[in-house]
Amino acid sequence: MKFRLPKTHKNLIIVFSVLIIFCTGFGLGQNVGRSEALDPISVTISREVPSSKNLDFSLFWQIWDDLESSYFDQSKVIPSEMVYGAIKGMVASLGDPYTTFLTPRENTIVEEDLGGNFEGVGIQIGFRSRELAVIAPLPSSPAEIAGIKAGDYIVGIKDDAKGIDKGTAGISLPQAVEDIRGPAGSTVTLALLRDGSDEIFLVDVKRASIDVPSIVLSFVGQDESVAHVKLLKFGAETVDEWDEAVLDIQKKNNLQGIIIDLRNNTGGYLQASVDIASDFIDLGKIVVIEERGNGERIEFLAERPTRLAQIPMVILVNQGSASASEILAGALRDQNKTQLIGEVTFGKGTIQEPRSVDGGGGLHITTARWLTPNDIWVNGEGLTPDNLIEDNPDTEVDEQLEKALELL
């Protein structure tokens, strides 16, 4: 396995704030086979350039013709794949790893996986100073059981069954997801590098079928009087699951407080975070979106009747808390002075809009940035908790949760 070591272990940057990509779930599926590649994009390939574009495509077609006429393995010269590759290269030229083009197969899997059911190893991935890294392992997933941790760099991927043995230098997020993802029961080997160490280690992970709920509710503390709400993602079913959790919380006679646990929640649908924040904020802004070009500002306001605004609460965060998680945490701190406990969050302050394109593909394009109600842009910086506490993985005690109970 050949790989390049990351240049730095700092400055987290991640994916898609409207929908974050799961390396084993939300993400990009199997290689598109030859038969699958015969979609409408390969039927007609025109060499005409739109008159409004004063561009010289002669070099493009020169390379195209040379590949068609001279490449030794003609079974690999698939026009639709070449067009998709050209589009991916055009998108990649922007230098934004989260503005991506998805083939029809990839796009279908992304849409399906928002429901939370998929096969894979159970990690969410993004970029850390443009190096591929683990954002967070999913709870009780094969990746977590194998010892993979948030912040680990992925410097190599090996899968004998898929014929993959590569480093990740320069890899795109969709390609990384496609390489790591696979059917339940199969195995992938990841070469990892952990912060604070220059020693690369290999981890074999057996893929499994994974069902990820949005919300897990339990009652903790003395007399189980504190609601501990783990928000694992902001997906298609999150608001419905949240409404069910709120009803259970409201039934609790001895309720003393609420802990919103956003640790390792890498985001999802923007509107879901707005809806949940509205249960705690009576009036005012939840998030501000600044669009490209003219800097037009769109304010998302608390519009739903509040159901939990009068109950004491705190929020748990860590470096795996990103995008929609940061929107929720930032809104509650700015508007309600809610205390954050844990570690500095991931720092993802841009919005990617999913768009459908001809042939069933998709384009996830960065269209805006978001700010907290106090006009704070978290991008690259994250939210710094009011109570900075690291959880010691060598103990059975959850130090961050214990601090939350102490404050309540």
CATH class call of the largest domain: Alpha Beta
Multimerization state: single chain
What is the strand content?
Answer: 25-35%
Please state the second-level CATH architecture of the largest domain.
Alpha-Beta Complex
Give the CATH superfamily of the largest domain.
2-enoyl-CoA Hydratase, Chain A, domain 1
What's the Cα radius of gyration? 22 Å
Structural class: alpha+beta
Q: List how many beta strands DSSP finds.
A: 20
User: Roughly how much helix do the residues carry, as a percent range?
Assistant: 10-25%
Q: How does this structure look, described?
A:
This protein folds into two domains: 12-31 and 57-210, Roll (Pdz3 Domain), CATH 2.30.42; 215-349 and 367-407, 2-enoyl-CoA Hydratase, Chain A, domain 1, CATH 3.90.226. The protein has 408 residues and is of the alpha+beta class. Strands 11-12-13-16-17-20 form a six-stranded mixed sheet, with helices on both faces. Strands 2, 14, 15, 18 and 19 form a five-stranded antiparallel sheet that branches. A four-stranded antiparallel sheet has the order 7-6-8-9, covered by helices on one side. 23% of the residues lie in helices and 26% in strands. Residues 8-43 have low confidence and may be disordered. The protein is built from nine helices and 20 strands. The longest helix has 14 residues, at 79-92. Helix 7 (270-277) packs parallel to helix 8 (324-336). It starts with 11 loop residues before the first strand and ends with a helix. It has helices at 58-70, 79-92, 104-113, 142-145, 173-180, 238-250, 270-277, 324-336, 399-407; strands at 12-13, 100-102, 117-120, 123-128, 131-137, 153-159, 164-167, 187-193, 201-206, 208-211, 215-220, 226-231, 257-261, 285-291, 297-301, 313-317, 339-342, 350-356, 362-371, 387-388.
